[in-house]
UniProtKB/TrEMBL annotation, chain A:
Superkingdom of the organism of origin: Eukaryota
Positions bound to GTP: G24, N80, K81, Q82, D83
Record protein name field: ADP-ribosylation factor-like protein 1
SMART domains according to UniProt: ARF, SAR
GO molecular function, one term: GTPase activity
PROSITE patterns attached to this UniProt entry: ARF
Organism name: Callipepla squamata
UniProt KW keywords: GTP-binding, Nucleotide-binding
Family matches, as NCBIfam families: small_GTP
Xref: InterPro entries: P-loop_NTPase, Small_GTP-bd, Small_GTPase_ARF, Small_GTPase_ARF/SAR
SUPFAM superfamilies according to UniProt: P-loop containing nucleoside triphosphate hydrolases
Record family assignment: Belongs to the small GTPase superfamily. Arf family.
From TrEMBL, chain B:
GO MF: GTP binding; GTPase activity; metal ion binding
Protein's UniProt name: ADP-ribosylation factor-related protein 1
One Pfam family in the UniProt entry: Arf
Entry keyword GTP-binding: yes
Subcellular location, principal: Golgi
Keywords on record: Acetylation, Golgi apparatus, GTP-binding, Magnesium, Metal-binding, Nucleotide-binding
Any one GO CC term of the record: membrane
Cross-referenced SUPFAM superfamilies: P-loop containing nucleoside triphosphate hydrolases
Length: 135, 201
């Protein structure tokens, strides 16, 4: 669990990513906004099995995307923990997070399993192309 | 005086914006069509290489200006599971581009069913529909008459709206300009769905 934040620079396909991995606990969430400026993409990681807290996940996401500084940012949702049987499908996830209401933003969902490492390559590959072709 | 000035401001700095939905089964070529369109209508746009396009599980957007008219595109994922998200966009759409893979005879009836469901939706009543018979660059593809025959029992469900079937290759760009120009003409003349006014930024 990240209590503060981790900063890392990752190079993938000749594109340098400055990644801020921010802690997700309620008390830390107000600090997310300190990192919004110059953000090209938001990777929002959601526990696909935690149906109880998906509502909280949605309201945090909605509030975040209202910020002027994130107006142009691409949204990538990692529907994580897909190795579990009861995991939500991408459509369930899209509806639960209210993504169809986002009409001016490019967004995409990836099924991932961070522990097994699945879906991550595909997602990064997609993000590289998406960032290169911004209008 | 105020009316005159505000009218001038609007004339100079505002565009009529129309929202266009791009629908169709997965692998029909919707995202490729969007990228091709963006590249053709935006001088400074360096599109993504069309070969790198992958399956959409979400939404791609794009804007083009055709004269004084602005089109804003919504390109949605086409997989069966994702089709339930399509109707969330209907109420705000001014036009629909429905893309068919002309090389996939096996899935033509599946595509027809999705098309049928879409055109019978009340929220899309009167909205112009451009049907793109895509991948016409492939020699063995189905012709326009073949596709029209396969979709023939939908004809009486189309209702009172503009509808055109256009041969196209999103990959080479053939038919793209013709399709877009037709769509612009139709959304502008459809008085039932007035445009959004957008400041030029």
């Amino acid at each position: 669990m990240a209590i503060g934040f981790n900063v890392e620079t990752v190079t993938y396909k000749n594109l340098k990513f400055q990644v801020w991995d921010l802690g997700g606990q309620t008390s830390i969430r107000p600090y997310w906004r300190c990192y919004y400026s110059n953000t090209d993409a938001v990777i929002y990681v959601v526990d696909s099995c935690d149906r109880d807290r998906i509502g909280t996940s949605k309201s945090e996401l909605v509030a975040m995307l209202e910020e002027e500084e994130l107006k142009k940012a691409i949204l990538v949702v990692f529907a994580n923990k897909q190795d579990m049987e009861q995991a939500m499908t991408p459509t369930e996830m899209a509806n639960a997070l209210g993504l169809p209401a986002l009409k001016d933003r490019k967004w995409q969902i990836f099924k991932t399993s961070a522990t097994k490492g699945t879906g991550l390559d595909e997602a990064m590959e997609w993000l590289v192309e998406a960032l290169k072709s911004r209008q | 005086m105020y009316t005159l000035l505000s009218g001038l401001y609007k004339y100079m700095f505002q565009r009529d914006e129309y929202c266009i939905l791009i629908l169709g089964l997965d692998n029909a070529g919707k995202t490729t069509f969007l990228e091709q369109t963006k590249t053709r209508f935006n001088k400074n746009y360096k599109g993504m290489s069309l070969s790198k396009i992958t399956t959409t599980v979400g939404l791609n957007i794009g804007t083009i200006d055709v004269g004084k008219t602005r089109l804003m595109f919504w390109d949605l994922g086409g997989q069966e599971e994702l089709q339930s998200l399509w109707d969330k966009y209907y109420a705000e759409s001014h036009g629909v581009i429905y893309v068919i893979d002309s090389t996939d005879e096996e899935r033509l009836s599946e595509s027809k069913r999705a098309f049928e469901k879409m055109i019978t939706s009340e929220a899309l009543e009167g909205v112009p529909i451009l049907v793109l018979a895509n991948k016409q660059d492939v020699e063995t593809c189905l012709s326009i008459p073949d596709i029209k025959t396969a979709f023939s029992d939908c004809i009486n469900k189309i209702g009172k709206r503009d509808c055109l079937t256009q041969a196209c290759s999103a990959l080479t760009g053939k038919g793209v300009n013709e399709g877009i120009e037709w769509m612009v003409k139709c959304v502008v003349r459809n008085i039932h769905r007035p445009p959004r006014k957008k400041d030029i930024t």
